[in-house]
Amino acid sequence: MKGTIMRLEGRVAFVTGGGRGIGRAIALALAREGARVAVTARSADQLDHTVAQVRETGGTALAVPADVSRPEQVRAAVERAVEALGPIDILVNNAGVARFAPVLQSTTEDWQVMFEVNVLGALYCVQAVLPSMIERRRGWIINVSSTSGLKAYPEQSAYCASKHALMGLTKALALETQEHGVRIHALCPATTDTEMVRGVRTTDGPSEWIRPEELADTVVFLASFEGNAMVDTITVRRYPATPWTC
């Protein structure tokens, strides 16, 4: 729209888990604000759908399929994105998996899968984009954690542990990069209406859940944050939930 100020115009974003749900909503929101967006996930078909939606709104997007738990695939995806769109200014570590079970029923495989994606996947992406950000003294890294990274929930031991680990990574990363002009943020949402959550959550309905678009707006806010003020963590709860529980 003529005269509209785009807060992220000229920037390049890399969004993981961008094939559906929160990741797709984030990609669309960043593109609407002028960012050129690379989206990655394991499913090429889902990524193509995200890219098509971005382009329908006049935005620029690129699909770079990859499994974030495989560092060589992450490096290749980032290299392709940089070659096509330019250096990465905004990294959104959104890819995640959830498997819920009581402690005595959780398996080693459950723990390994969640740590490989939720923690190591974020680490590999950070390691791929951070050198350029430090060199340019400019960058935004937004790790999509969870309220499960701030408190415990029954039957979520492995998921909570992985999200707490992601928060630890985020905090240490913020300390290491502060003097290099790189901004590190954590976004901690409660139950959000996604295909993944619908597969594991049975206690209430989507009418009470956060919409992916609401989180996407929050990511845009964090990605556009500049100046002397800084936001470390944003916790987003469901409106019907008890306030100030994290």
Overall mean pLDDT stands at 94
Estimated share of beta-strand residues? 5-15%
Question: Strand order within the widest sheet?
Answer: 3-2-1-4-5-6-7
Number of domains: 1
One letter per element, helices H and strands E, the order comes to EHEHEHEHEHEHHE
Terminus-to-terminus distance: 40 Å
CATH topology: Rossmann fold
Number of helices: 7
Oligomeric state of the chains in view: single chain
Portion in helices:
40-55%
Q: What is the general shape?
A: globular
Which class of secondary structure composition applies to the elements? alpha/beta
Any idea what the radius of gyration is? Answer: 17 Å
User: Regarding CATH, which class?
Assistant: Alpha Beta
CATH-assigned homologous superfamily? NAD(P)-binding Rossmann-like Domain
Number of strands: 7
Let me know the largest β-sheet.
7 strands, parallel
Looking at the overall shape, the CATH architecture is 3-Layer(aba) Sandwich
What low-confidence regions span 5 or more consecutive residues with pLDDT below 50? Answer: none
Structural account:
With about 250 residues, the protein is α/β, with parallel strands linked by helices. It has one domain: Rossmann fold, CATH 3.40.50. The chain is built from seven helices and seven strands, in the order βαβαβαβαβαβααβ. A seven-stranded parallel β-sheet has the order 3-2-1-4-5-6-7, sandwiched between helices. The radius of gyration is 17 Å and the shape is globular. It starts with 11 loop residues before the first strand and ends in a 10-residue tail after the last strand.
